[in-house]
């Protein structure tokens, strides 16, 4: 259910695995993505199960319509009847408002400044890394009073640089923008390490307290992986403040 969870000064971080839900194959079991072909009723039930296991109200969780870009949405309450914005990061200064990000190989990025009372969740795939979604999220946080030196960062399960094979031209293009993303697969072909790229961006922004999940989604059968399975579910990362 919740594969990784920790709390720092009232900031809560949690990442799901694929177990403990109600979805059928190929989305078994805890698919939290509503746009992958799964039964909507099962997704709703899974989101309720995941939220309750974290001790938060499922109706208050703020989701995004993720599009592999760098747009940031600012939330002051659940979207309710409003359209879910097209964005790859969401930021709030409302304590007790959980933010969520969906992934299945991309990097889920959770950020919190407990002193300022500001949190963010970001979806950093290869396009988002290059577009700068993580720097955009940090800028939005600072606009609400956060200080990068106080921000606590957590990145969750994602495909690792040993497994994320790409064409040589793509590796060159991405690493020209984010050199730390340059990688090689375990079988010796061009690759990208998006998690390393995200952490390099955070370091340059002054975010010093960072933790990276050791889990590679492509290697772990406890996690969903689009690159491994194509038709599959989505994991979620959650962040909120007391």
From TrEMBL:
Pfam family, one: Cu-oxidase_4
Keywords, in A-Z order: Copper, Hydrolase, Metal-binding, Transferase, Zinc
Catalytic activity of the protein: adenosine + phosphate = alpha-D-ribose 1-phosphate + adenine; S-methyl-5'-thioadenosine + phosphate = 5-(methylsulfanyl)-alpha-D-ribose 1-phosphate + adenine; inosine + phosphate = alpha-D-ribose 1-phosphate + hypoxanthine; adenosine + H2O + H(+) = inosine + NH4(+)
InterPro entries assigned to the protein according to its UniProt record, in alphabetical order: Cu_polyphenol_OxRdtase, Cu_polyphenol_OxRdtase_sf, Cytotoxic_necrot_fac-like_cat
Highest taxon above the source species: Bacteria
Protein family membership: Belongs to the purine nucleoside phosphorylase YfiH/LACC1 family.
Described purpose of this protein according to its UniProt entry: Purine nucleoside enzyme that catalyzes the phosphorolysis of adenosine and inosine nucleosides, yielding D-ribose 1-phosphate and the respective free bases, adenine and hypoxanthine. Also catalyzes the phosphorolysis of S-methyl-5'-thioadenosine into adenine and S-methyl-5-thio-alpha-D-ribose 1-phosphate. Also has adenosine deaminase activity.
Protein name per its UniProtKB record: Purine nucleoside phosphorylase
Lineage: Bacteria, Bacillati, Actinomycetota, Actinomycetes, Kitasatosporales
